[in-house]
Amino acid sequence: MSRKIRKAVFPVAGLGTRFLPATKAVPKEMLTIVDRPAIQHVVEEARAAGVEHFIFVTGRNKSVIEDHFDKHFELDATLERRGKTKELELLREMLPAAGQTSFTRQQEPLGLGHAVWCARDIVGDEPFALLLPDMLHQSPRGCLADMMDVYEEAGGGNVVSVYEVPEDQTHQYGIVGAGEKVGKGFRMTSMVEKPKPGTAESNLAISGRYILQPEIFELLSRQEAGAGGEIQLTDSMLRLTETQPFSGYNFPGKVYDTGSKIGFLTANVAYALARPEMAGDFRTELETLLAL
User: Fold this and answer.
1) Could you tell me how many helices (H) and strands (E) the chain has, helices first?
2) Pairing mode, if any, of strands 135-138 and 246-250?
3) The whole model's pTM is what?
């Protein structure tokens, strides 16, 4: 029997140096994709998958993320007084319920593995979801919701979402090997972080969505620094594969790396075109720009 995934971890402590000077005072996770911060898109994906507790691993100058997922009494009162019912309802719908959010600090930039480890006491002894806020997954049904199905079909274990990347770019990603298909997912046969060019077993790259068992925390606590002098999550996941099964899910939608400028701009265009109320006018503006 697989245990229910109730909690999700969001590592949001990164400095966002690729977006300076914009991120000097504004966290990169709060940069907007159309009309909502990138982090909100990811939280909404988790909520749609049934997550009940949202855990943010933050750093200095990230308090605005906590404020974003809290009530703003003055704003609510002003909207209500002005009869802005639609806007008020939108704000209320996006808020997690009281007690559903937790915030903890990653006091040093020691890598993704260290950020996940910082959430250990809040997660406790239960499986959890991990969502990287930089990676937006666009599809009619959320990526994590489909991963929950894979998790149930496999009877538990760990699940990693992947997407297909060009063969000549596999050396830039964590790559997994695919075995037999099981329901929506497949049995993972291998996992390599940034394989040498021409050596990758497949073109299936890890897309920033995970379901992990709590034993990963003990492995992370003993994990030595790896690439870049940081504690790498992949290193501990590789050790976990020695004792626990891993399933993969080949995400069929689009993945946008909003941590890069091109990915961020592309995501804005894609998400705007997916909005019926603005798609037509926005497409016209794009066509005008492209014709210059």
Assistant:
1) 11, 13
2) unpaired
3) 0.93
Rounded Cα distance, 18 and 15, in Å: 9
DSSP 136: E
Task: Quote the DSSP letter at residue 155.
Answer: T
Rounded CA-CA distance 129/210 in Å is 6
- Examine the pLDDT at 119 and tell me if it is beyond 90: yes
Three-state SS for 3? coil
The DSSP line for 194-221 is SPPTT--S-SEEEEEEEEE-THHHHHHH
Does the pLDDT at position 1 exceed 80?
A: no
- Decide: 129 and 218 in contact? Cβ < 8 Å: no
In whole angstroms, give the CA distance from residue 178 to residue 201: 9
Q: Would you mind telling me the total number of residues written for the chain in this entry?
A: 292
- For residue 248, what is the enclosing H or E element? strand 246-250
What are the backbone angles phi and psi of residue 191, rounded to the nearest 5°?
Answer: -155, 125
Mean pLDDT of 274-282: 96
> What are φ and ψ of residue 56, in 5° steps?
-105, 125
CB 34 within 8 Å of CB 268: yes
d(CA 212, CA 258): 24
Could you give the CA distance from residue 276 to residue 129 in angstroms, rounded to a whole number?
A: 31
198: how many CB neighbours lie within 10 A of its CB?
9
Burial environment of residue 277 by CB neighbours within 10 A (0 to 12, 13 to 18, 19 or more):
exposed
